[in-house]
Amino acid sequence: MNLNGALSLKNHQAIVLEEKTIHYKATIKLFKRLLKKHLKGKIHLILDNASHHHHHTLKPFLKKHRRLKTVFLPTYSPNLNLIERLWRFFHQKVTNNHYFETFDEFRKTSLKFFKNLDNYQKELKTLITDNFQPIPNLKSQT
After folding, report:
1. Torsion angle, CA of 27/29/138/140, rounded to 10 degrees?
2. Of the chain's two ends, which shows fewer C-beta atoms within 10 Å, N or C?
3. Could you tell me the CA-to-CA distances from 69 to 43, 45, 54, 99, 101 in Å, in that order?
4. What pLDDT digit, counting tens, does each position of 109-123 carry?
5. Could you tell me if residue 59 is inside a domain?
6. Where are the alpha helices (H) located in the chain, listed in sequence order?
7. Containing structural domain, residue 83
8. What pLDDT shows up at residue 141?
């Protein structure tokens, strides 16, 4: 199961999409969903250095959608990546020490978790805000 997602630092809302594979097309699909959900203002995307975040087809897309501002995290810094905290939380709640009879059961349980993320807002608030400090001097790539 491949999940691609974005997490808002402001309100802890997430967009999580199930994909066949995570590549530049899935990244563009996620970016489009963000643009659709947030109709006004700039959207700052703090990204890791996965190859699909640097794919050459993203540059024209980002140029066309100037509201999207990308900032890349330093290499090998998953502790600074908020979505990694969400993935870890997901594993703690859903996958760790749980047995699923079928893949479909696992898939449905996983997607239900993200659909009902509001049920975990209190825990997410501490997970996301505790010890998180914005990284100074990161340069926008767009």
Report:
1. 120
2. N
3. 6, 6, 13, 40, 42
4. 999 999 999 898 888
5. yes
6. 24-37, 58-64, 82-90, 103-115, 121-129
7. 2-129
8. 52
Task: Determine contact, residues 43/120, Cβ cutoff 8 Å.
Answer: no
Residue 120, domain member (yes or no): yes
Enter the tokens of residue 120: 């975990």
Is 79 buried (19+), middle (13-18) or exposed (0-12) by CB count in 10 A?
exposed
Is residue 137, in this structure, part of any structural domain at all? no
Of 63, 76, 103, 109, the residue nearest 90 (C-alpha): 109
CATH number, position 96: 3.30.420.10
Among 12, 16, 14, 15, smallest CA distance to 2 is for 16
Segment 25-34 shows an average pLDDT of 95
Q: How many domains does the chain have?
A: 1
- Is residue 136 one of the residues assigned to a domain? no
> What confidence tens digit (pLDDT) does each residue in 60-78 have?
999 999 999 998 988 877 7
The structure's pTM equals 0.81
